[in-house]
Write a structure and sequence with these properties.
GO biological process, one term: positive regulation of multicellular organism growth
InterPro entries: GPCR_2, GPCR_2-like_7TM, GPCR_2_extracell_dom_sf, GPCR_2_extracellular_dom, GPCR_2_secretin-like, GPCR_2_secretin-like_CS, GPCR_2_VIP_rcpt, GPCR_2_VIP_rcpt_1
Radius of gyration: 29 Å
GO molecular function, one term: growth hormone-releasing hormone receptor activity
Strand order of the largest sheet: 3-4-5
Shape: elongated
Membrane topology: Multi-pass membrane protein
Strand content: under 5%
Distance between the termini: 33 Å
Order of helices and strands: HHEEEEEHHHHHHHHHH
Function: Receptor for GRF, coupled to G proteins which activate adenylyl cyclase. Stimulates somatotroph cell growth, growth hormone gene transcription and growth hormone secretion.
Oligomer: single chain
């Protein structure tokens, strides 16, 4: 969830996930600030020493530890920086030999001596991830926009089911747009310091992104609730019922977003609100999403159970079998699409296998709206029939050609 920000976090912290620390700063920012402080102290010490002996190895800062002047043949040992305790509880020491050719490499290497992970994701990996999800979201927005127009323009396609589909399509479009806005605000410049960036524009972009993601998950929940209601009963879904769905899909996220904004303003107004690891207030947003995913998965299992019973020819009437079979096809195509891969990471820590999460939730997730639009609009038989009928009517008006299929054609009323 919200993994576009992971690109920023990985750049901030090349030593893996932090352990909790009691600090007003995020651990990654604390790590950067402490190293910058040590670097200034090192350069100040080198300047104060002035032009000393030119023999041996000169003092220098290696981006982690400040090494003093040493004579040839001398071995200098330094303790691991205290800042590493932000990520691991135990620290060790690192040594360098002063040779006639200069300083040797650290021995043992920092990632061994200081018990930190030396796996630093390559910039090319992040660039590839960003390229993939940019293409995915762009295609999704274009296809979803066409799908929304089709469902809105054709009057015979207006029904409770398609009303919910339209809301879901809109949330996919909003989520894609929010990701683009967030990228333009936070990641347009590689030199942006996310530990000091704290502007109104960046906070608004982060809030908008969180709201769009929440609405998307809640409308996925509405889809599951609606499909369950269709299978459990055949009652007519009144306007009041649709208003209730709308309140759940659009209103509930507003409530939690406002709570989260208030908590960040009064208790944790740091950076650009885009780094949330170890923040207890993050659960104001993450908690409802985790619950919605879990409920969605249970509804999916319930749908499968009902369909197995409903589709048994001995338990249903012949005239209803085609309805259930058509609904089964739609349900089985949609529910796994938004349920199963979210459940895989739903109850795992945020830092669990982040590279895999980036691939699944950002890269594959960016194409989710595209797939939903294709499955529930362009491949829908009712939509195809209506588009075909409109095409025949246009030909009739333009060329005076009346197709036999256009005479007296009637469509089944959609669910």
């Amino acid at each position: 969830i919200f993994l576009s920000c992971r690109l920023c976090v990985h750049k901030l912290n090349p030593f893996g996930p932090p352990t909790p620390v009691m600090s007003s700063l995020h651990p990654e920012c604390e790590y950067i600030f402490q190293l910058e402080k040590e670097e200034r102290r090192c350069h100040q010490s080198i300047t104060e020493q002035g032009n000393g002996s030119t023999e041996g190895c000169s003092s220098f800062w290696d981006a982690v530890v400040c090494w003093p002047h040493a004579v040839i043949g001398e071995t200098v040992t330094r303790l691991c920086p205290a800042v590493f305790s932000l990520f691991k509880n135990n620290t060790g020491s690192v040594g360098r030999n002063c040779t006639s050719e200069g300083w040797s490499e650290p021995s043992p290497p920092y990632h061994i001596a200081c018990s930190v992970d030396d796996h630093i994701p390559e910039e090319s990996y992040f660039a590839a991830v960003k390229l993939i999800y940019t293409v995915g979201y762009s295609l999704s927005v274009a296809v979803l926009a066409i799908a929304v127009l089709i469902l809105l323009l054709f009057r015979r396609l207006r029904c409770a089911r398609n009303f919910i589909h339209i809301q879901l399509f809109v949330t996919f479009i909003m989520k894609a747009v929010a990701v683009f806005i967030k990228d333009a605000t936070l990641f347009s410049n590689d030199d942006t310091n996310h530990c000091t960036l704290s502007t109104f524009a960046c906070k608004v972009s982060v809030v908008f992104c969180h709201y769009c993601v929440m609405t998307n998950f809640f409308w996925l929940l509405v889809e599951a609730l609606y499909l369950n209601s269709l299978l459990l009963s055949s009652f007519y879904h009144s306007r009041r019922c649709l208003w209730g769905f709308s309140l759940l899909g659009w209103g509930i996220p507003v409530f939690f977003i406002i709570l989260w904004i208030g908590s960040r303003l009064y208790f944790e107004d740091t950076e650009c609100w885009d780094i949330n690891e170890e923040s207890p207030y993050w659960w104001i947003i993450k908690g409802p999403i985790v619950v919605s995913i879990a409920v969605n998965f249970m509804l999916f299992m319930n749908i499968i159970r009902i369909l197995i019973q409903k589709l048994n020819p001995r338990l249903i009437q012949f005239n209803n079998s085609s309805q259930y079979r058509r609904l089964t096809k739609s349900t089985l195509l949609l529910i796994p699409l938004f349920g199963t891969h979210y459940m895989f990471f739903n109850f795992l820590p945020d830092h669990f296998n982040v590279n895999l999460r980036l691939c699944v939730e950002l890269c594959l997730g960016s194409f989710q709206g595209l797939l939903v639009a294709i499955l529930y609009c362009f491949l829908n038989q009712e939509v195809q029939n209506e588009v075909h009928m409109q095409w025949l009517r246009w030909q009739e008006r333009s060329y005076g050609v009346v197709s036999p299929a256009a005479k007296g054609s009637q469509m089944d009323t959609p669910f």
